[in-house]
Amino acid sequence: MPDAPGLELIRGEIERDRPGAVLATSFDRGQAALIADPERILDVLAWLRDEPGHRYDFLSSLHVADYLPAEPRFGVHYELINRDRVERVRVKAMLADPGDDALPAIDSCVDLFPTANFQEREAFDFFGIEFRGHPELTRILLPDDYVGWPQRRDFPVGGEPVTFTYNERNYG
Amino acid sequence: MAEPADLLDDRTQEVMTVNIGPHHPATHGVLRLVVDLEGELVRELAPVIGYVHTGIEKSCEDKSYWKVIPFVERMDYVSYFFQMEAYCGAVERLVDLEIPPRAKYLRTLFLELNRIHSHLVWLGTTALDLGAISMLWYCFRERDKILDLFEMAAGQRMHTRYFQVGGVIEDIPLGFEEKCRKFAEEMPVRVGQYEALLDRNEVFLQRTKGVGTVERERLLELGVTGPLLRAAGEPWDLRKAFDYLAYPELDFKIPVGTVGDNYDRYRVRVAEMVESARIVAQCLDKLPDGPFIADDRKYVLPPRSELPTSMESLIHHFKLVTEGFRVGPGEVYYSIESPRGELGCFVLADGSAKPARVHFRDPSFVNLQSFRDMAVDSYIADMICSLGMLDPILGGVDR
Amino acid sequence: MEVERRTLRSKQLSARDMLRGDLEGEDLERYVEERVVTTTFERMQNWARSNSIFPLTFGLACCAIEAPISIVTARYDLARFGAEALRASPRQADMIILSGRVSIKMAPVVRRLYDQMLEPKWAVSMGACSSSGGMFSNYAVVQGADKFMPIDLHIPGCPPRPEAVLYGFTKLQRKIQGNPDQGWRARYDAHGTEEWARGGPRSEPSAEAAAAYEEARELARA
Q1: Neighbours of B219 (CB within 10 A)
Q2: Is the pLDDT of residue B43 over 60?
Q3: Measured distance CA(A88)–CA(C3) in Å, rounded
Q4: Closest Cα to residue B40, out of B386, B353, B381, B384?
């Protein structure tokens, strides 16, 4: 894990090479996170992967979290690992919900990290985030004709209430 | 690369799309494969998953932190302790709770027992797919012994809910250590017997050697971890890379293969079983005394014996059971080495008593992306063998 | 008519006489009574069916590790009940054990498998998830396989122990033989409290149960 000064050094270097791509840093509970501009996400990921001295070339996880009611609402997380120095760094891109039926969009990193294929499909399936440039962005875990984005915070959990007929009959 | 055998010069092979699964004796769970076949050769393969999608991650957002534990156990239903550890570890990092040394060792012990259990289920079912049916009986005989140990400690064979935030729910009972030690001594002997059956078996070698090879770089690109990656020659194991629980204090090796074909995957997993048995024996030797769960009453239930006498314990108990503990805003991603690879848990806390997002980076889900590379341009029987050696557990894939 | 119990020696002698063709009259009648059982064809057929069930190899999730894998292994041997021949094709099987949670994507597949099975067929819902949705009361799990197919037996547990599955299996055998085990209802004389799911042979409720069920439905709808 790069420590807090190490994280600031990384941010400084990215600013030098790709100015404006990283919006903020966060060092919380021992974890280093770079908050990147969603339009420049590929720049940041490619820099982290290819820059000698920082080769974070293993994408361990790509996942999305819905921060409703905070805005911007969707956070796309990229967990990167440098296997030689055994260090993790997280890149976060915050997307806002455009409203109506439009889907929040971000560039797909499948060309940089082929492992993101299924994981981006899963993010699309559950949150409705469009990954521009993904070869096959279809639903993966839910039935193909499912309507709705279940893991958004405003989607209900579902299920059905359990009726206890004894209670209904005797206690109304 | 295999070519279709042309019996007649003017006969052409058409490509036929065949659907395998979701109900199929050889898919390990409800996996559906849509395969383009040219004769017996697989030309294109697309896995269709989601047939056991249970919406666990969404359900977890509705439950207090400790109620999430039984939910996440049931994702990868063969290695349930690992999911509990990933989740409990993530929450412990969120609340900055240090678990006592005895709990660390107990957790490590059960994790390694679960690893052996998972590999036994894998070996039994994969050998069954390849036709070595006797392995199923032998492996499940051992597996029943492990389940007896789990039942002794936790009360249930599977899905034990044994790990809690702060440690383990109960100490191991008397007689457990003896039984476990006996098991750990006898396990390498049994594994030797399995190896004697399969290692140099001509049929097994023909079916697995040179089959399903994917290069190391391609596997790394695809995010594959675990025995699949280690069989291809990359010594990447999270137990050694990131120190967690009691692993830094234990002495164990990581088996690494050379070629990365199905035979190497088999050898790596079987060797891992032996190493896990060694870890179990060491954990029993080094098990420190002390509390088995952390002391912090804000997050951990007080012992029941205190409840009748201490008002404060009663209040803590009440609060923890009804509302649960609150976790300040923050997010954590914590990953461990499960029998299939890197199992990561992401927990987002928003200050309330329920997690705002629980996401699992499941190894089978990511490893499944390499299946196409393994199976394309080989025979369909080789595809079945590769599927067995890939060891997907669909509960984890679909969550 | 009672049959006297004779000593082994006298039975041996009468068998020898039978083989020689020497038994006559009353002795012959007694000999035949001791060896022939009369019953209805249906009972015999049900007895045969219950003791030679061909389960379908079908596993969905966690319960699949306990059954069908664990109950056919040596410790909890299902073969001793005659159900050793697990068939992969639904056309050849007559019992389907729904072991695991039925997700919304899988439900049509399960129904199709059940439809492909030939009569007589039985469906066993193993575990809490297929009986009632289990702990997963959410958008993705069908809350009980009862919703789309008739189930003959529910086995509770999460996952049920293999012994519990075998106990359920013996209950299914009794049900097939036409002698269903009423369980606690017989012990506490609580007949008429059943709530019946629709479908399948022998699932018609008694008159009180039918009335109670209708009343419950009215209340639930109101």
Answers
A1: 25
A2: yes
A3: 85
A4: B381
- Restricting to B residues 228-287, those with a Cβ less than 8 Å away from any Cβ of A are 236, 241-242
- Read off the pLDDT of each residue in B107-128 and give the average, rounded to a whole number: 92
Q: pTM above the 0.90 mark?
A: no
Q: What are phi and psi of B27, to 5 degrees?
A: -85, 135
Interface check for B51 against chain C (CB to CB < 8 A): the answer is yes
Give the integer Cα–Cα distance in Å for C82 and B122. Answer: 27
Quote the CA–CA distance of B22 and B19 in Å, as a whole number.
9
In the numeric block, the tokens 């063969």 are attached to B78
Give the C-alpha separation, C100 to C116, whole Å: 20
Q: In a 3-state reduction of DSSP, which class is residue B8?
A: coil
Task: State pLDDT tens for residues C11-48.
Answer: 788 788 878 887 777 777 877 777 777 778 888 888 89
To the nearest whole Å, the CA of C155 is away from the closest chain A CA by 19
Residue B310: how many other CB atoms lie within 10 Å: 14
Query: For residues B248, B252, B258 and B261, what is the CA-based torsion angle, rounded to 10 degrees?
Result: -100
- Strands in A31-36's sheet, in edge-to-edge order, are A22-28, A31-36, A87-95, A74-82, A58-66
Element (DSSP H or E) covering residue B257: none
Residue among A84, A86, A115, A2 nearest B244 (CA) = A86
Structure tokens at B241: 């890379």
The nearest alpha carbon in chain C to B68 belongs to: C135
Q: Are C103 and B50 contacting, i.e. CB atoms less than 8 angstroms apart? A: yes
Q: Residue C201: what pLDDT?
A: 42
Of the candidates A86, A118, A155, which has its C-beta nearest B366's C-beta? A118
Answer whether residue C200 shows pLDDT above 50: no
Span A73-114, pLDDT tens digits: 899 999 998 888 888 889 999 988 887 778 888 889 898 889
